[in-house]
Amino acid sequence: MARTATPQPTALTVHQATRVLEIGFDDGARFRIPFELLRVYSPSAEVQGHGPGQEVLQTGKREVGITAIEQVGHYAVQPSFSDGHDTGIFTWDYLYKLGAEQAALWQQYLDRLSEAGLERDAPMQGQAGGACGHHH
Fold it and tell me: Whole-angstrom Cα distance, residue 70 to residue 61?
């Protein structure tokens, strides 16, 4: 049998107290992905923008929770975060990537923060009114 490209999850647990999503895959990999990382790298347009370079840098998400998580078909989950964000559809592929590359992704996030001169815990700017926050 040919191996399908995407490992399928065998277990998915939301740990509210420690704020990590624990996910096990059928290739034996197990990841504990912090909610903050999930939130910061949400695949939604609100975070990713509508093209390269339009990503909206997320801040102040250290304490973010996941209030609900819904399965989307057989390929993804859609978490609802405690800050009201719920438009990110996380495919198994994407969750696997977040888990496998989380150290590099954290570093990338911290680098982007320092480039932007932002604190990790700064409140989000320009959220009111429009989904696209343009800075003045």
Answer: 21
The CB density around residue 29, as the number of other CB atoms within 10 Å, is: 14
Q: What is the pTM of this model?
A: 0.86
pLDDT digits (tens, 9 = 90+) for 104-129: 999 999 999 999 999 999 998 754 43
Whether 92 and 6 have beta carbons less than 8 Å apart is answered as yes
- From residue 97, how far is each of 113, 126, 134 by CA, in Å? 21, 29, 29
Q: Which two tokens stand for residue 44?
A: 């939604």
The pair of structure tokens assigned to 99 is 């888990």
**Cα–Cα dist 68/86, whole Å:** 9
DSSP-derived secondary structure letter, 89 = -
Distance CA 68, CA 105 (A): 24
Domain boundaries, the chain: 9-116
Domain 9-116 adopts which CATH fold?
A: NE0471 N-terminal domain-like (3.30.2020)
